[in-house]
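Appendix B.2, paired examples.
Example (i):
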Amino acid sequence: MLHLFEKACVAPVKGRTLVVGSKLYPTKMVDRRKRYEDAVGVDMAEGDGVDLVLNLEEPLPDDVGKFSHIDCLSVLEHSRRPWLLAANLERLLEDGGSIFVAVPFIWRVHGYPDDYWRFTASGIRELFPNIKWKYGAYVHANISREGEILTTNIKGHQYYARTEFCAFGYK
């Protein structure tokens, strides 16, 4: 699902990259830092895959610096105050830098450490007012830029398919 959008739409600006939510959990064993030449992994908790422990809902230390690209996948739903996290990501992104965001729209509740939110395309645009989104799509078994969400039939009942909203843009 996500990889289809990434392959078709994401063209990160080369340079220093921030991988948000980089801690490797038993259910998340892909170290996205390895996709980038110069990457810094940030998470609220220490662990494998984490270079910098920071709560991105709080004011940032002066020495964090700027980034050419930010990779923020499956993180915002775990933030108690995603509007503060998003504002800090915009501050960390250099002018002309790129950002890739993926968030759940329809998905089961899951921890790490908790799960608070689901997002629409409009919600992501509101959270990141200074980003010029080049691509945005609801992603499930297919990619739907029109916002069409697949349904699945389980024992004669229609349910929405697991769907994420993915977006790529520039500051």
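Example (ii):
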Amino acid sequence: MTFSRVLLALVFLFLSVTAGNAETLRLAVTTSFHNSSLSDVLLPQIEDDINLDIQLIVVGTGQALKLGRAGDVDAILVHSKSAEEEFVEQGYATHRREIMYNDFVFIGPTIDKADISNARSAIDALNRIASRKATFVSRGDDSGTHRREQNLWSSAGSNIELFDATWYREVGAGMGAALNAASAMNAYIISDRASWLNFQNKGELKLLYSGDPALYNQYAFLPVNPARHPHVKAELAVQLEDWLAGENGQKLIAEYSIEGEHLFTPNAKPK
């Protein structure tokens, strides 16, 4: 074997050993975050920068918090502030740190029979849908998106338990599957902007309403508390948090776009 081949073999051996030495952290994330494909950009850079292999557990916010309570993950990245604050208050996380935000948007048929494109607010958009009994798809999965939708209906003075299932369709699914259902039914739906922009099966649907401050969508990082679950990798969670909130993480989040439109705005504050 020539010297160059020996050298090349050693390089490959070094790379394989280095890759194998990356430590692993289990991170529960929302389906909306995963559907944005931002993780495809962040995860390789995280491994390069801090030698940390992130195993994503993709679920709704409610299920992510359940995994945290059980100690089945090391950290959580979700978007339901009141539930997150309760999670911290109950001692399941050491703290909550905001990382980035985007917004929720109303998606619906190109032929907008409920005329939500002219709505004055998110509440007005929902009232228009309900008054027309226009087909509306709800995730129905206790996710952050589902909880926000429920809060908006409540603010609109509506009791969703009284809605007729002929037009209010709960699918019990993640954001991508719910958007697929809405596309198949040519229905209205509330989505996070990132999932919508990255969604490929738009069919006759389009973005009809956005911009109400009530649709603000904050994502936060919560490290699972080692006082509750001593086996969690608390030090690795700190490393990941510092990276996400640091210069490299915030820069990549700010730069990530689809078709020229930025999906998230970084807003992590120094400790």
